[in-house]
Amino acid sequence: MELGRLEYLQALVTEFQVTDSTEAKEQVLANLANFAYDPRNYEYLRQLQVLDLFLDMLTEDNETLVEFAMGGLCNLCLDKTNKEYILEASGVEPIINCLSSSNEETVVSAVTTLMFLTTPRSRAQTTALPVVECMLRFSLSANTRLSNLASIFLQDYCSPPQVEEARNLSKHTAVGIPLPKD
């Protein structure tokens, strides 16, 4: 008997919750992140609290789990309901924390997600001074994907005074978020 979409996603969530295998958790989270790409799954993923699962995984020590969770959130946050949920669930801070990941995919997904989550109401948080400083450094990266994405972030989501303030501040400090490894 073939499982329906909701039942299949429920089976994945259940497998994630009951397995003790790190490898199985990684595989299931990768599958959920891939299913998050399809708008037909948004309602089911909300119903199964997968957004909370992804947000919870952002603070894990396992970089692979963080990468897949960040990718899943990036896939989901184009939807207005999902975007509002992430913002209401205080999801911006853990996403910003992912900017310091040594995993390139995690960082690229985090930058993209911050772009998608930026609204008039969330802009102060998504373009806070430390984020703008980080984007300035990323814009200088030898990694073309990251450099281009950060440049777009600075140009499209930050005001010129914000960028100037971050430039001036970063001239006087060595503190910052490290670039991801290539």
UniProtKB/TrEMBL annotation:
<dbReference type="InterPro" id="IPR042462">
    <property type="entry name" value="ARMC7"/>
</dbReference>
<protein>
    <submittedName>
        <fullName>ARMC7 protein</fullName>
    </submittedName>
</protein>
<dbReference type="InterPro" id="IPR000225">
    <property type="entry name" value="Armadillo"/>
</dbReference>
<dbReference type="InterPro" id="IPR011989">
    <property type="entry name" value="ARM-like"/>
</dbReference>
<dbReference type="Pfam" id="PF00514">
    <property type="entry name" value="Arm"/>
</dbReference>
<feature type="repeat" description="ARM">
    <location>
        <begin position="49"/>
        <end position="91"/>
    </location>
</feature>
<dbReference type="InterPro" id="IPR016024">
    <property type="entry name" value="ARM-type_fold"/>
</dbReference>
